[in-house]
Amino acid sequence: MSETIDAQFDVYRFDPAKDARPHYATYRLALPAHTPVLSALLQIRAETDPSLTLRYSCRSAICGSCAMQVNSKSRLACETQIGPEMERHGRIVVEPMRNQAVLRDLVVDQSPFWRQYQQIAPHLILDPTRPMPEGRETPMTPEQVDRFKETPRCIACAACYSACPAVEADPAFPGPMALAKLYRFVVDPRDTATQDRLVRIQTEGLWLCLRCHLCTEACPKDVRPSERIRDLKELAIGAQGGTENGSRHAIGFKENIREGGLLNELKLVRQTSGVGGMVAQLPQGLRIWRKKPEITKKPPRIEGADEVEKIYEALDRPKEGS
Amino acid sequence: MRIAYYPGCVAQESGKELDLATRWVCRALGIELVEFPNFSCCGSGFVDEANEVLNVAINARNLAIAERANLDLLTVCSTCQGMLSLANLRLGDPAVKGRVDGALKPLGIEYRGTTKVKHLLRVLTEDIGLAAVKQKVVRPLAGMKVGAFYGCHLLRPADELRWESGEEPHAFEDLLAAVGAEPVYYRGRVLCCGFPIQFVKPETAGRIAARQIDDAKAHGADAMATPCPLCHISLDSFQNQAAKVAGHPLDLPVFHLPQVVGLALGASPEEMGLARHLVPTGPALAKVPGLARS
Predict the structure, then answer these.
(1) Could you tell me whether strands B2-6 and B73-75 are parallel, antiparallel, or unpaired per DSSP bridges?
(2) How far apart are CA A264 and CA A299, in angstroms?
(3) At what angle do helices A194-203 and A225-240 cross, to 10 degrees?
(4) How does residue A135 score in pLDDT terms, banded at 50, 70 and 90?
(5) Residues A65-76: pLDDT tens digits?
(6) Residue pair B245/B203 in contact by the 8 Å Cβ criterion
(7) Mean pLDDT, chain A, whole residue set
(8) pLDDT by 10s per residue, chain B, length 294
(9) 3-class secondary structure, B188
(10) Which distant-in-sequence residues (6+ apart) come within 8 Å of A172 by Cβ?
(11) DSSP state of B124
(12) How many CB atoms lie within 10 A of CB B136?
């Protein structure tokens, strides 16, 4: 038995039919420290306020329904215990997920999240002319299975989508979950649309990922979406090369370092944006140059730059999908 | 203490003021910086996007340079910190290590994995210690409210960097308090500055930068401070563009971490290279008695 603590819950409440704006309702309960936030909310609903609206189902971190913000962090309410939250924050602020419109209290409209998921064609695309092997099974090597060992763990709770600053800033970004799922099909040896998928995603938001790793922090299932997005970027470059600003920048940066070991800032702008892009950025460039004239200087060649060059010769090969 | 100084590209180039301030502060606190003219760029996250193993290998080379001298390595950039630490971590995988060794061994380079990668923030708060920093303060930054802005790669993925909590760090705020400034807590302090997509989609990058700057201001900040020169580019050099996207003026000075420490330890604004900032730092300095006129 863990000790009983006095916990304070400040719960976001909003009923668009009745309220002009959201407010926070405070509830105080004495509960064992190991109580999940979800259980506490259900107790509040059962004993104090039957109008409190929330989504949940399995209570076992399997269904992914009860993602919400607990003390500003997107997580599953069913596996977040009240003890550590009270210890760290002195109270438990419960709010709906971010980046999705609130329908009522802790329930958000998930349709944009699911639309983004649909966009990536989240199913195997098979070649109808290629017969399935004997017994309708496709043997895979352990190495092939290893490539997508994390992504099937995803329970589509949207905690990553809620935590993502790129989703917040730009509706063109598909979000971490959709991209992690896309990766899963790209490396599946049964899928025959690998090249199409990689070509399409380059223009459909892949390069808007900020690699801030907030999704990987938020994910309750350790899918590590930011790392899967990184893998996708390398595969997309391998499939098609630099067709977008993002892939051109990554490739340009790689080539830039190869030449003398340090970054040539001015040259990078040309590598990413071309001469036309450089002209467009000239006013801003001049503004910065007045304070920081080094931006136009070529950096010195490091000692041992030939070692860097040899490392490139050994390892600079494109990566392939399934 | 002696430590290998890995300045990173930006501090040697357009962010020279960060290098100036780092050297000043390390001199004042007795940190001996050992320099190596053969460090290369860390890849800045972009080389990692293009080729993960190549990126690990160029950083294994950097780490081996410090390792040969039996030194830990000091970074002054969240991204350098993240890339070099991730290389250390990924080299724990025998398959990755095998490929990297295959490229390094013919060059006579040996990576053993004994060099720790430490950001200046960590060296100041853990190795030097807040009490020792505080003891050297001659001009507490009392009256200046500063919003720390960490930069993603100093914090995340937290389970891999194994230092501060990725969600609720406090080392930077503790350091700000030690030099007499008033730390401001705001949600944006652990979020992204927008820099990685500055060249992908400038409007979106600007919207993200403006969001964090507005957040710091809404919590009363007179200035922000960052341990990452790439965040500094986004928040300071491109603040005008962020303001344009936001549709309102931002006008928030942004310091590099060692500048804030240096000012409290008695450095002049000139010694900290403050004139090189795009957003004037004067209004923030004016909050500290005796600083604006020095």
Answers:
(1) parallel
(2) 6
(3) 100
(4) low
(5) 999 999 999 999
(6) yes
(7) 93
(8) 999 999 999 999 999 999 999 999 999 999 999 999 999 999 999 999 999 999 999 999 999 999 999 999 999 999 999 999 999 999 999 999 999 999 999 999 999 999 999 999 999 999 999 999 999 999 999 999 999 999 999 998 877 666 776 668 999 999 999 999 999 999 999 999 999 999 899 999 999 999 999 999 999 999 999 999 999 999 999 999 999 999 999 999 999 999 999 999 999 999 999 999 999 999 999 999 878 655
(9) helix
(10) A204, A205, A208
(11) I
(12) 17
Question: What is the reported pLDDT for B294?
Answer: 52
| Contacting residues of A for B45, CB less than 8 Å apart | 211
Q: Which of residues 275-304 of A touch B (CB under 8 A)?
A: 284, 287-288, 291-292, 294-295, 297, 299, 302-304
- Residue among A159, A192, A161 at smallest CA distance from A77: A159
Tokens representing A158 are: 């949207």
Three-state SS at B143:
coil
Token digits of residue B129? 């210690």
> How many residue contacts between A and B have a Cβ separation below 8 Å?
193
| pLDDT per residue as tens digits for the range A66-120 | 999 999 999 999 999 999 999 999 999 999 999 999 999 999 999 999 999 999 9
The reported pTM is: 0.95
Does A269 contact chain B (CB < 8 Å)?
yes
* Percent of chain A surpassing pLDDT 90: 81
B197, B208, B234, B241: best to mutate for the A interface, most A CBs within 10 A: B197
Q: What is the mean pLDDT of residues A18-25?
A: 96
Give the CA angle between residues B48, A311, B33 to the nearest 5°: 75
Torsion of CA A291, A293, A296, A299, to 10 degrees: -120
Chain A residues 237-266 with a CB less than 8 Å from chain B: 237, 244-246, 249-251, 253-254, 257, 261-263, 265
How remote is the C-alpha of B80 from its chain's centroid? Answer: 8
Q: Which residues in chain A have Cβ-Cβ distances shorter than 8 Å to B278?
A: 287-288, 291
Report chain A's terminal Cα–Cα distance, integer Å: 50
- The C-alpha atoms of residue A292 and residue A253 are separated, in whole angstroms, by 21
